[in-house]
Amino acid sequence: MDNDASTSTLNENQENELTDDSQVLPGFCQSLESVLRQGLKVGSLGLIGLLDRDYWSVIDGLSSSSRVTLRPPPSINHAITVVKGCKKTSTSQGRGRLFIRVALTKGILVQALEALLQNQEYVRYWYKDASPLVDYRRKDLVMGILKSLKKRKYNLDVNNCSFLDETWLLPRVEKFEFVPCALLGLTLVSVDGKSIITQVKSGSVAEEHEIEPGDCLDELFGQYIDEKWCLKVGQLKKKYQGKPITACVIKARYKDGRWFPPLYKRYQVLCAEGRCSMTATEFQQRKSESHETDSEKVTSQHTFTIDYLGFHNVGENGSCIYVQDGIDNVLKADNQKRTVKMQLLERDILVMFSDTGEVLGRFSYTETSSCGIKDDQTNIFGFIAGNTTCSFADSFDCHVFSSHDPFIARTIIDGIGKGFDRSIYCV
C-alpha cells in the first residue's frame, strides 16, 4: 500500500485508541518508515565497512548534533535515551522502529517530526532534495501524517521489540510468574541471538503453562536472554533462588496456529540439525498440517458482514484500471442488494449469503486479479476475478460490495491485496 493510502486508512479508522492488535497500525508504521527513508543519503564508508546508517541516525542526532539549531523538547531526548538503552534492538533499523513505537505511545511523534521540519540545515545534511522533509512541494505527505497522529492515542507494548531488527511483525508475547522451583523444564539453544526452546520436560511447570518447543525465552527475572545469557541462565536462577520466577516468552505461533516467521526460520534450522524434539521431516509434516488447518480457520477479524451489489463482466482483461468501470456499471444496474458474509481465508475469498448460508462464490487469490475502492464513495468497493487462474483466464467479472463504514471497506481491500502475490490493487 502506498503512503497516502495508509494515512487515509488511519484517518478513516474510528478507534480513539490504537493497540498492537489494530489492523491499520503496521501499514501506517511501514509508510512512516518509508517517508523517513525517502531521499536519505547513502551511509559513508567507515573503518570496518559501510556504516549502519538509517533514519534512526537522524533522530538520534536531534539531541546532540551541532547542526541542530532548535532543540527538541526533553521528552524527545528521553525517548532517544530509552531506545539507546534497550538491549533487544542492535541495528539502526530496529532502533528506529522502536523509537516510532515509543514516541507513538508517549504521544511525542508529532513533536519529533516537527523538530526535523524546523531544522532544515540539519535535515539537508542527511537527506537529498527529493526527501519529503526537504522538498516543500511534497510537504502534504508529512502534514497528512501529522494530522493522523494528532487524532488518537496509542497503547502499545513497547517491550515487545525483540524482533524489530528483522520485521515490523509483532509476535504473541506471554508473561508468567511461577512459584519458586528448582527446574523450569526447558532446554535452550541460541540461534541468531535468540534463545529458542527446543524441549519442554514432561510434567514441568513450563509444560503446565503450555510453553512449547519453538517458543523463545525473551526474559527471565527481568533480564533479556540474548546469546550470552542463554549460556548463563543457571546463574540467574541461583541469584534469585527461592524467589518467584518471572519470565517473558515469545510464542512461536499466533493463536490461530500461524507461525511467527522469524521463529519458524530458527526452529527449522534446529530441526534440520537434529537439535530439537522433532526431526526435519516431522517438522515439515507438522508445518504442512498447520497450513492446511490455517487455510480454513477464520477469526472474527477476517469475517465481515457487508452488502453485495452485483457483478459486471469487464471483458478479457482483469487489470485494476477496470475496477472503477466495473463498480460504476453495477451501480447503474441498480440491483437489489443482499447482505453477505465475506471471509478472507488463507487461499480464498469466501462469500456467503447471510440469510440462506448459500455460497455466492469462493474466489481463489490466483483467480483474483485486482481490487479497489470507488473514488468518490469510499464505502463501496469491488474485486475482479477471472473464470480460471489469471494467467489463463479469458473472462473477468467485477464483484461489487458496500459497507456501512469506509474503514471496513479499506480493511477488506488491504486484506485481499495481501492475499495475492501480485499485489496489484488500487487504493
TrEMBL record:
Residues 304-421 form the PID domain. Residues 19-161 form the RUN domain. Gene3D superfamilies: 1.20.58.900, Pleckstrin-homology domain (PH domain)/Phosphotyrosine-binding domain (PTB). Transmembrane segments: none annotated. SMART domains: RUN. This is RUN domain-containing protein. It comes from Clytia hemisphaerica.
